Amino acid sequence: MTVHTSRNHPAEDDGGAELLSATARDLPPGRHQFHKERLMAQIHDMRQTERPTPPAPERRRRFPRPAIALPLTAAGLAAAVVAGVTLTGHDGNGVQDAGPALTTTVGAATTKGVTRLLDQISLAAAETSSSRPAVRPGQYIYIKSESADSYIRDVDGTSSLASHPLHTRQVWKSPDGTKGWLIDPAVNKSPEGETLSLPDEQGNTPKPTLNGPSYDYLTTLTTDPDKLLAKIYTETKGQGNSPDQEAFTTIGDLLGESYPPAELYPALFKAASKIPGVVVVDDATDAVGRHGVAVARLDETSGEREEWIFDRKSHVFLGERSVQVRRNSGTDGLITPGTVLFTSAILERTVVDGIKQTPTAKS
Questions:
Q1: Is 318 helix (H, G, I), strand (E, B) or coil?
Q2: For the chain, how many helices (H) and strands (E)?
Q3: Which of 143, 321, 329, 360 shows its CA 20 to 30 Å from the CA of 299?
Q4: Distances in whole angstroms, Cα of residue 53 to Cα of each of 50, 56, 74
Q5: What does the pLDDT look like over 128-173, one tens digit per residue?
Q6: How far apart, in Å, are the Cα atoms of 113 and each of 106, 110, 119, 265, 274?
């Protein structure tokens, strides 16, 4: 059995957000929202009644990972929740255990130069996003990335820290968020991938939100940094380990696997510069080994630092990672400083004319 640290969307910001992979598959943000919320409530109730110690800190996985395909029973969930992370069986897909946990040297962080760096990133974002192709009805946003993660592996009652290897993830999403496709060996049973199209099995078509946005939804957001940040705080109230951390995470979600409109993209960075506790990490490495400078924030509760990595010269977004910088007692000391909990690298982000079409295949 494996244990994944979790990091995802609103109903998945609890430690039990990574679900049993035998019944899980990756879905667009917001899909099966009702079931996710019910699941999180069940986990919360079980932690309150079955555990003598406080639950481990909450985490959210940056990229949308497994969501619920079918509601799970409380008994099944009780067996799944351990120390704030969620047990899963062997994924049964294309990603195998790779061995030791991912680790890195914890880079020094400073508040010096944060505003200046984010101003530079915002200017670069305005320039790059202005040259991005517009998204028309019938087209798809295509994002290709590489990612890997560390997790707690439990074999015959003995826990150890291990990792899943770097693997390619490809996702296609329609502008309105109702159609899509995913190819990710970490969550797909078939190498051909599977549909992300709505409605879901229960006939639900959830409305897009900040934590489950469509491109069309993002075009409706204000580009005033102060108003945008106020909206983020309001809509994420009560989520995560603190309002500031949740605001930072929410913006980070939009940098990873979404396609922010040209006017919104630079506003996100200006909004981030107004969040208390944001720091600069002078050297950080994305999932494919590209070095850059990071904008980061430490979750004081979990001891995990979220890092957005940018090219040092062009200030283009490269990817992100989550690094443990303080010992997490909720995992029996297994997750130590320097553990890379999750790492990713964005390789392509563009618009294509058909689902499952890649940029090189465009006519």
A1: strand
A2: 7, 16
A3: 143
A4: 9, 9, 20
A5: 998 888 899 999 999 999 999 998 888 888 888 999 889 999 999 9
A6: 19, 8, 10, 21, 13
